[in-house]
TrEMBL record:
InterPro entries given in the database record: Peptidase_S8/S53_dom (IPR000209), Peptidase_S8/S53_dom_sf (IPR036852), Peptidase_S8_subtilisin-like (IPR050131), Peptidase_S8_subtilisin-rel (IPR015500)
Naturally occurring in which organism (per UniProt): Nocardiopsis coralli
Protein name: S8 family serine peptidase
Coiled coil start-end: none
Region (Disordered) residue spans: 351-390
Signal sequence extent: 1-38
Keywords: Hydrolase, Membrane, Protease, Serine protease, Signal, Transmembrane, Transmembrane helix
Transmembrane segments: 322-344
tRNA-binding as UniProt keyword: no
Family: Belongs to the peptidase S8 family.
Ranges of compositional bias, category Basic residues: 377-390
Domain Peptidase S8/S53: 70-277
Pfam families: Peptidase_S8 (PF00082)
Length: 390
């Protein structure tokens, strides 16, 4: 079903083609540069990372694409800057700089955004990477110190999923407001302990916890978060590892669920994800969209997409009293009768034209009589004779 992107433009990937296979692997903040020669390439020589995006298949995102690709859902990325011109993100992404400049290190935010809604270089191109929900809309809110305000702004904008790059600060008031507004809030398991946030720890391709993670008691869910291909700096793709990326992939998966079952509330979606999880490392649940979808479908079947109670209230509120209907019908009938009478009177008056003919004759006679009674005009130049005297 998925052709790579729902965009018609094709963008050429820069910065990866000339990297030699033997170059050194440089890791900064969990981001690793990827040698192009080690990857598959399309007909134009662009690197195609999709066959190696093991995280998407692991959580079952590719199976859900047969039903939805996340269309109609907005996912907000709060905190890091994001490369808004990246070809794998372009057109899906909106950047709100009301809470901070989009000029910081873009590696983290761009990588997270790519895992959520990367759409490749174009519908007909094989290059680039895909996110879990490639048709979802992205809202990036880079922040300085106003993370709280950015979360609230994302909720006010209508984001159905909000993903945080960090959860170690006390943001419970803002995250609670976001949940109340209808958003599922996701973040890395880094010891924050916010009950409103679905905390995610990263696992590797073998399903084991990867890197330094929080205590099991602080982890709600695990998801792929090790050596994931995603959108990177310099218009390229890269490999990333860490809890924020696991949280981003989870956010993309939740966007698919919210797109498929829009009638579910945030807590119902969260319950479906947790109850539909697989057994993960150390007994911690592991994200499984296939099972979460089954859970969500079971709950959604009893919940109409349209609230029938609200619809009934709207119908009742718009009802018109019976007497108004009778008055309106009576007025229409009366108007119709009057119009019919006038038409009949006009159509039956002097059908043979007798009155009109008499009127015309009378006018002619009157004109003739007026001409006879008019005195003859005295000719010009005549002299009036004086009467003779006696």
């Amino acid at each position: 079903m998925l052709g790579g992107n729902n965009r018609t433009m094709m963008h050429t990937r820069h910065g990866i083609r000339g990297i030699a296979a033997s170059c050194a692997v440089v890791t900064v903040l969990g981001i690793t540069a990827v040698p192009a020669a080690a990857e598959n390439t399309d007909n134009e020589g662009q690197a195609d990372f999709r066959p190696d995006q093991w995280g998407l298949a692991s959580i079952g995102a590719t199976e859900m694409w047969e039903e939805t690709e996340g269309g109609g859902i907005e996912v907000a990325v709060v905190g890091p800057s994001v490369h808004e011109d990246h070809p794998d993100l372009r057109d899906n992404l909106t950047v709100d700089t009301g809470h901070g400049d989009n000029s910081g290190n873009m590696d983290l935010g761009t990588g997270m955004a790519g895992l959520i809604a990367g759409h490749g270089h174009g519908m007909d191109a094989d290059g680039g990477v895909l996110g879990a929900a490639p048709s979802a809309a992205l809202l990036a809110l880079p922040t300085g110190d106003d993370v709280d305000g950015a979360i609230r702004a994302a909720a006010a904008d209508g984001a159905q999923v909000v993903v945080l790059a960090e959860t170690d600060a006390d943001l419970s008031s803002a995250t609670e407001a976001a949940v109340d507004a209808g958003a599922v809030v996701v973040g890395p398991a880094d010891g924050g302990g916010d009950p409103n946030v679905l905390t995610v720890a990263p696992t590797d391709e073998d399903g084991q916890l990867a890197g330094n993670t929080a205590d099991a008691s602080e982890i709600d869910l695990t998801a792929p978060g090790d050596e994931l291909y995603t959108a990177g700096p310099d218009m390229s793709e890269t490999q990333v590892s860490g809890a924020p990326y696991a949280a981003a992939l989870t956010a993309g998966g939740i966007a698919l669920l919210r797109s498929a079952y829009p009638q579910l509330q945030p807590e119902q979606v969260r319950d479906a994800v947790l109850e539909g999880s697989q057994q993960g490392p150390g007994g911690v649940p592991a994200l499984s969209l296939t099972d979460a979808q089954a859970q969500a479908a079971g709950v959604a079947q009893d919940i109409p997409v349209i609230d029938e109670d609200l619809a009934d209230e709207a119908d009742q509120g718009s009802q018109i009293p019976v007497w108004v209907w009778f008055a309106a019908v009576g007025a229409v009938l009366l108007f119709g009768i009057l119009a019919l009478v006038m038409w009949v009177r006009r159509s039956t008056r002097d059908p043979y034209g007798v009155e009109a003919e008499r009127r015309e004759e009378n006018e002619e006679i009157a004109a003739a009589r007026a001409a006879e009674e008019q005195p003859a005009r005295r000719q010009k130049g005549g002299r009036r004779r004086k009467p003779r005297k006696g």
